Structure formats: structure tokens, C-alpha cells
Amino acid sequence: MTGAELAAGFAATTAGTGLVAVGVGYAGLRRKGLHRWLLPYLRTRHLRRDRLPGEPVTVYLAVCDHYEPRRGGVPMAKARARVQEWVDKYPALFDRFRDTAGTPPQHTFFYPQDEYEPELVEMVAGLCRRGYGDVEIHLHHDHDTADGFRDKIVGFKTALHDRHGLLRRDPATGQITYGFIHGNWALDNSRSDGRWCGVDNELDVLVETGCYADFTMPSAPSETQTRTINSIYWAVGRPGRAKSHDAGVPVGQGPKPERGLLMIQGPLVLDWSQRKFGVLPGIENGDLQKSQPPSKERLDLWLRAGVQHPTDPAGVIVKLHTHGVNEPNQVVLLGEPMVDFHEELARRAAAEKNFRFFYVTAAKLACRLTSVVLS
User: Architecture of domain 32-370 in CATH?
Assistant: First the structure.
């Protein structure tokens, strides 16, 4: 995007607000990384709107956690205590809530291969066996190769399946399948400096090793953010080229491409209620953390983002992300803010007969989007 295009986009976005500092806004938007996705955001503005009173809406809510018990290099005892807090508190806080289908809140733990501790994984697996979520694969790597990446994934998914009874097998091929989130947002070597990945053909390796969907996006304000936003689409690796998932084929608008990897994005919108210096909008990126607790207002923004279910006109995908074992974030995720959020969902469903919501894991969400059964 050129400077002129970005300035014009900013002017269009701020039209009617009385703002005249377009130059200041342009510089600020570049600092926020908006120059990577503002024009696509403007081009798709017709897809974002507030729901009319009584209009049917079905919310598919998936919380995808970059779950890193050893984050910060803490000793094993500290990591064990972090996980134990989840094992103890999650059922106690959330078992009383049920969605439209009678399912309790679900949490998908994307566990990092590079932090694998069998004891900790087994603690999380036990929580999932009680009906509160699922485990998928997260990975941080740097200056890697395709072969190195493949070995890490295959070894880890085999351990999760064979040792802990996690993941699933493709009923047609028998291959162990998994969902994926890339560490440091650097999917398919998408950083300009090449750090935290190194594998240009990463999408192909993911497909080859049984990845059923990637859940990394959105990553804004990181430079790894794609120009495709608020979408469910198929991305295809391009030999020798990084960031192949920058664009793709929307699910439902054509056949699945050969070697296509399902990309399930979360909401990404401008939040004009959170202006900096009265000029720059905030970015709503679906992150749950201490400084971004869930709320009624954020729920409205997530719905307004319009991440559309490809076969359900009333269906809206709300895929959120978090780093759940950071102690400040646990205050939100295992505390009053998250309780209040589930109460808000229940209140809306009780008050609005056309409001339905489903708590889904990453795997269940992918099944609903593609009608592919993951056993």
C-alpha cells in the first residue's frame, strides 16, 4: 500500500469525525501496522454491521490459547502450579454455564512442542477429558528447516496421541490430525527479518503432516498480519515464497484447492471508542488478557467483524486468542471478567429468542465450517 493510498484510506475511515490531521494519522497508522490491512478493511466495510433487533444470529465461540506453562523460563514447580490453577478453577467457575446445545464453556489449549513436559500435558489432558476443552499444537522455532519443522511436528503429535490420548485420526487416511498456532505469529516465515521460523514452505509441511486448520491470525499489530482479514479461507503454499497465507480462496466460494490449508481467522476491526490522542482508533484483535478483558462491548465488536460461517447466513465465528498461563491474564480468564462474559451470553440467549451460541473447540469449529469429520 502506498502512502497516498493509506492517507486516502485514513481520510475515508475518519470521514465525518471532524479530524483533519491526516498526516499525523498516517504516521500513527503505520506504527500500528494498519498500512498492511486498512484498504482490505475499507473494501469489506459492507460486510461489517450491527445486527438488527430480533435478527437471527448464531455465535460459534472458540477460545484458542497459546498455552505456555514454562513461559518466562520458570522452574517446573511454578509451571505445575500454573496448570493446577486451571485444573482447579475452570470447572468450579464455569461448569454452571451451558450453551444452546447444553455444552459447558470450551477452551482449546495449543500446547507448545518446544515446552513439552509430559506431566503438564497430562494435567491439561485430564481437564479436557472432563469435558472442558481440547489440546492442539503450538510451536516456537527459529532459523529452522522444512525437515526440522516436520520432525518436530510428527514427533510431538505422535506423543500427544499415543502417550496422552489426545488429537484425532483422519477416518479416511488414519493420519493423526491437529490444529496449529505458530509461535511469535511468524507463520510461513512471515517476518521481514526471517526470525522465529525460517521455513518458506511451512504451509505445505503443515498439510503433509495432517494439520486440519491454522488458527494463528489475526496477529495485528505485528508485521506478520495478513491483508486477508475476518475470513475463513484456503491458503496454498507458494514454493520459495514466504507468507503464502496472505490471501486465499474463501471457503464456500469454490472447491478446496489442492494442498489447501484451512485458515480460521478471528475478528480484526477498528475500535473508535478507544482513540489515542483523540485521533487514532484502537485495534480490536480478539485478544483476551489483563488489559483486554471480555465485555459486552467487545462482544458487539466481535459480532460486527462479521467472520461469516460459509454455509450459515446467521452464523458468526468468534475465534479469540490468549496466553492463558500468564498470571495477570489468569485473573481475567479464571476470574470475574470471564464469568461476567458467560453470564452476558446466557442473558442474551434468554432475552432474544433468535440469539443462539455454541461453545466449540478448535476441532469442532473446523468440523462445523467444512463438514469434515475428525474422529
Answer: Alpha-Beta Barrel (3.20)
